[in-house]
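Page 37, top half.
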Amino acid sequence: MDNHLYTVAQLCAIEASAYAELAPGTLMQRAGAAAAAFAMELLGQRRDKPVLVLAGPGNNGGDALEMAAKLADDGVDALVLHLPGQRDASNETASAHERARAGSVGFIDMLPPDGDWGLVVDGLFGIGLSRPIDDEYREIIAALAKLRCPVLALDVPSGLDADTGAVVGPDGVAVRATHTITFLGDKPGLHTADGRDHAGLVHVDMLGVGPAHVPASQARLGTDAVFAHRLAPRRQNTHKGSFGDVVIVGGAQGMAGAPVLAARGALFAGAGRVVVAMLDPGPGYDSVQPEIMFRPADDVDMDQRTLVIGPGMGGSAGAMRMLARALESDSALVIDADAITLIGASVELLARLAARKAPTVLTPHPLEGARLLGLDAVAVQADRLGAAREMARRTGATILLKGSGSVLAQPDGELVINPTGNAGLATAGSGDVLAGICGALLAQGWPAWEAANGAAWIHGAAADLLVANGAGPIGLTAGELPPAARAVLNMLVAQAADAR
């Protein structure tokens, strides 16, 4: 189903359901044919060059063998390095091997030290890999990294966990593909954590399996459709009060820049008025954006406005007091940065958070999320979806776990992986801008789930726009994001208006 993401267990159930109505080997043959057709598209004008197919011991290797046979039938010079393993192959894989041997596929015993390949195909391991890749395969994967040609992974890049996006094993390795053709449904691991570096461009082929065999999933790959119904042109008869007040609470000594960046994010994302509530004495105005107002935090009324708390806030007693006030308010609330760390260290604050009824969004990076869960960042990164879901369950809030392929989670278990953004966002202050954008959307009446998804999408798309225009990813700065986010938001509104 469109945009749905499936775990390995769910995919095994889909496969079993489909097999109940199909002859043995049908899905493997379809996978081989689909992969061969996709490979022909990738080859383009390079079809006169040989294709190297790496076929492993399991059914993923069977898919690769079927693919090689089909490529050879289509006149492509297909060479197979077959690594059969120590266990007997399945009947389907054995049949695929026979078909490849019976045709014009060439078989080789070792990986050539060099070669002018049109394409290399990774069919070493599929979705079921549960242990790190061992020495023989590690050498092959290391050799692949030196080749200057497209690499197509079948189902998932070998060595990548299809559920989590982590490379399998603490010292594991995985194929870095330029493209992945994945079968029977998309996988979350292709779109978050290490997955975005290893999967390349992802193409989904359902292998002719109909919707009756494919249930809906709680996890999806994000699109702007999640929040498109919130995108509307502004009426002419409005005023600044029509678009909400956002108060950014933070700015301890030496950290005034963080709330200022959040405030600019909120301003450029359409908030009517933006106030920075400084914990410690700081700047009286923003010389770049003088529209932003500044107040001492103790003087700010926290009710009936949208609050973004945490950017540059520190961990002082005053910060704790302001966070407690924010949690007790009836205002929509974005909790970021130091505020998340403070909640993770306090059972009382966590209980206050879980008891809130007003819209609440938390925007942790992996280390802040780890503090909230009593883990370390490595554990969070090893299962980003599971960590985000657990944070949502404990807090009762919408979670936006930042990182490559940001994960959004609801307390009911619903998950979305945001696909926008790039490495340029790995810079100081970009998370502050994200929090401000989310606050602005909440202030304009968006519910928490739509606001979090919209903020993640717009923030990532702003970075993509900057990179497309030559600003980054290296050297992209957080201060460049707010104007780009404004451009993205207005483009989305215009597109939504045209579609209606």
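Page 37, bottom half:
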Amino acid sequence: MGPENQTSISEFLLLGFSEKPEQQLPLFGLFLSMYVVTVGGNLLIMLTIGSDSHLHTPMYFFLSNLSLVDFCLVSTLVPKMLVNFLTHSKAISYAGCLTQMYFFMVFACLDTLLLTVMAYDRFVAICHPLSYVTIMSPQFCGLLVLLSWTISLLNSVLHCLLVMKLFCTEHEIPLFYCDLTQILKLSCTDTLINNILVYLTTVLLGVLPFTGIIFSYTQICSSIMKVPSAGGKYKAFSTCGSHLCVVSLFYGTVLGVYLSSSVTQSSWKSSVASVMYAVVTPMLNPFIYSLRNKDIKDALRRLISRMASSQ
């Protein structure tokens, strides 16, 4: 297939939500509100951690990176959706679709890897407390984050390079964003290599990290059960509670997206499941960490006090 045929599609149509004109403005208001809350919440978490020396620890270093990734994830998807609501258009250019798909895969993969790194941090803190400072050194923490970024970027580059070699005649995507698996379904050329790579990366960057999280918390629970006092057990569990909530929300919504795309052909139902994963989860993460974490709440109070006194 020649290059001229591969670029014959100049745009895709994102069919994720209602085409009724009277529903476009309410949907715009809903997603604009969610976007503002998500951006504000994650920026506030990053500002709080960065400005308070009490939070300059590995756990909060990873949390600030997770907030950055969540901010970037929603900023990759929601602004284009808001523009389409206002213009009553569902179109996205071919280049824009590939760009959105690339960055979505980068930040989604980073979410998975950072949650795994955070589980490892809790494992070392609870199961090997005497060695925690030595193991989780600033250099090692920086290396873990750098490795996560490198893996995510390379993974996305590889997928996008292979997608660019496909030829599509259909151009309707039944979601509100450009998703790799949906684009593969539109191809009328062989996608065997693409599908093999999708399954391989799903196992390496999805299943294995989740298995690592499960193993970490199995060891953590085993260690906590050996703590003699109820107060000690509660204190140990409380340091993991927020992370466990975020992990449950993240993987629960990912599973929801997978199941919905497998059992239904409805673009509305698939998009609702995708919203839970790609928009609602990043919006809730700052609240989970701030409401359940005494250190974050204390740092927020100190930040607000400093800002009030400076005026």
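Margin note: The first helix runs from residue 3 to 6.
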